């Protein structure tokens, strides 16, 4: 059995103040510790997480996303999710987080929304 993996892949930023990171793999109990530790270190004004590569999201992963959102909001830093897969979208919907978390259909839409709020 292969270990559960989540790769955090930096993408070209949407400017000097925006960090776009693509998640590739499973955002689950086994991977949330590294995810949270890495994302809490990010000091950019805005963080966009490209969720298009997330093959599976569980409740621990949802909790990690909320934790990062709350942490960034407390620091007056922006946060957005983009390109959720069908499974991730269903989990976020069932968790009732569609109204709490800023979620966009694409990374481009998240960048445009971030730019407009500056």
Plain-language structure description:
- With 118 residues, this protein is α/β, with parallel strands linked by helices.
- The protein has a single domain (11-116), classed as 2-Layer Sandwich (Transcription Regulator spoIIAA).
- Helix content is 37%, strand content 29%.
- Strand 2, helix 1 and strand 3 form a beta-alpha-beta unit.
- Helix 1 packs parallel to helix 2.
- The longest helix has 16 residues, at 59-74.
- It is globular.
List keywords for this structure.
37% helix; Transcription Regulator spoIIAA; 5 strands; 29% strand; 118 residues; single chain; alpha/beta
What percentage of residues falls in helices of 4 or more residues?
A: 25-40%
Q: Write the CATH architecture name.
A: 2-Layer Sandwich
Q: What is the count of structural domains?
A: 1
CATH third-level topology: Transcription Regulator spoIIAA
Sheet-strand content, in percent, reads 25-35%
Mean of residue pLDDT values = 92
How many strands, what sense, and barrel or not for the largest sheet?
Answer: 5 strands, mixed
How many strands appear in the DSSP assignment? Answer: 5
Shape summary: globular
Structural class: alpha/beta
